[in-house]
Specification:
Two copies of one chain form a homodimer.
Chain A lengths: L28 H10 E6 L4 E3 L7 E7 L2 E6 L5 E7 L4 E2 L1 H6 L6 E4 L3 E7 H10 L1 H27 L3 H15 L9 E3 L4 H8 L3 H13 L3 E4 L2 E4 L2 H7 L3
Antiparallel strand pairs in A: 1-8, 2-7, 3-6, 3-8, 4-5, 4-7, 9-11, 10-11
Helix pairs in contact in A: 3-4, 5-8, 6-7
The structure holds a DNA duplex.
DNA sequence: AGCCGGGTGTGATGCTTATCACAGCAGGGT
DNA sequence: ACCCTGCTGTGATAAGCATCACACCCGGCT
């Protein structure tokens, strides 16, 4: 089946081949069947907004395909990107559980497939399926962990250079794909967005990249970034 | 019964009168009985360290009495206080659920009564009591929410003044006790600690307080702080 | 009394970084 | 070929804050 945005939709969770590698999705059969009955499989184009910070929670969004930008935004328009969510993550989970407003804004940056579940349905589902409830706790722990890292990076860094170095190392570690010594990674974000991830200005990011290139620490062709001196980066990231 | 540190210990959760106001503790009877069997009631003096960031999780600490300082710390000794935990909170929860290292350090700032539960016992307890599991999810949501606020404050503020104003407003709101117009609150922390809460230096905090007093926005006698111009504070906190 | 130690006030200095202001430089559309 | 529009590079300027270096104050101790 083909969706409006050129995505091949995985119609049913029961037959989803990716299920097992995903912390939330890999449920026992009975729970999965119940989940199947309350979820709505949907698709979004790039740039769609799933929910906005401050809205009262309509429900959860299980990300099946594509990436979603999770951000907060100040009254004066400044934006901070907390993370780029990957497939398998459950978005809007904590707000849906607690009933408090969504604390983040979720915006797709790829065409995405998403399973939406209404809040009431989801809460009922959790009451009836203790094992799913535990998965939720795990997901929330993960998110909390993530937020703590963000706090650490924002609160304990002395300079923007330090934060950028941390970010690059994290990315290179994530894409893990061997190349321990000289990892290469796709730069899928603009300088502006990177700035929003580390809480600094676009110009500063540009200048930092320029300096890193001059010092032969990184090297770029097209949108690919090659880390030539991981040790130096680690040093910059603060010992 | 009297504990080593002058605390009157509440021996059993079953008879604890404070239970109902607490998000985690107010469990159905069967779960509570089970919890009772696996918990260890303990007491700590002021300044005790419950766990340290990076340790692998031994279990959870349910705070019954007293306050606990939750912080992270950088390699160069800089400390950031994320929050002061109050009775009813479950500390070390996300690490215990996920199995990843504690992400924070917990240090008592009062004599404290704490119920400790070993990780294996707690996980088993969760598997067997779906309702408790849901409480855990709620607690984690709460914590996540908190962390998001911290991120917002650290990442989206333009100045230390803004962050201090936000903190004071939050405190005055917390202690709620009427006095809408001119809240007064006990300043239980040193300038150093306040600095660590908003990620700035001790001197900056001192200077900011001096300026707030000069501008008649606050006023202090002893350790009591009186907010004389809440509107001005709100303005400083960023619209 | 005197002495300590932890917390608090305050100045001088320099670094980091935001901000403004442009100038190039793609790539896509017509 | 043209013009947009969105991204990237770079300089000048100034604000904000960390840091160092003291002086001061007050409660507790001997």
């Amino acid at each position: 089946m083909l969706s409006p945005y050129g995505l091949e939709i995985v119609e049913s969770c029961l037959t989803c081949k990716l299920r097992e590698e995903r912390i939330f999705c890999d449920l026992p059969n009975s729970a999965l069947q119940a989940f199947e009955n309350i979820k709505y499989a949907t698709a979004y184009p790039k740039g769609a907004v799933l929910f906005v910070e401050g809205q009262s929670p309509r429900g959860i969004f299980v990300l099946c395909k594509g990436r979603v930008k999770m951000s907060i935004c100040s009254t004066d328009g400044k934006t901070l990107i907390l993370k780029i969510a990957e497939p398998g993550e459950v978005l809007g989970l904590s707000a849906t559980v607690s009933g408090k407003p969504y604390e983040l804004t979720a915006e797709t940056i790829d065409p995405c497939q998403v399973n939406f579940v209404k809040r009431e349905d989801f809460l009922r589902f959790l009451k009836e399926h203790g094992d799913a409830c535990f998965r939720v706790a795990e997901q929330l722990s993960e998110k909390y962990n993530n937020a703590c890292h963000e706090v650490r990076s924002l609160g304990l860094s002395h300079s923007a250079a330090e934060k950028l170095a941390k970010l690059l190392l994290e990315w290179s570690g994530r894409n893990g794909e061997a190349a321990k010594l000289e990892p290469r990674l796709k730069l899928a974000l603009t300088h502006e967005e990177i700035a929003q991830m580390i809480g600094t200005s676009r110009e500063t990011v540009t200048r930092l990249f320029a300096e890193l290139k001059k010092r032969q620490i990184i090297q770029s062709k097209g949108s690919t970034l090659l880390i030539r001196n991981k040790a130096a980066l680690k040093l910059m990231a603060g010992a």
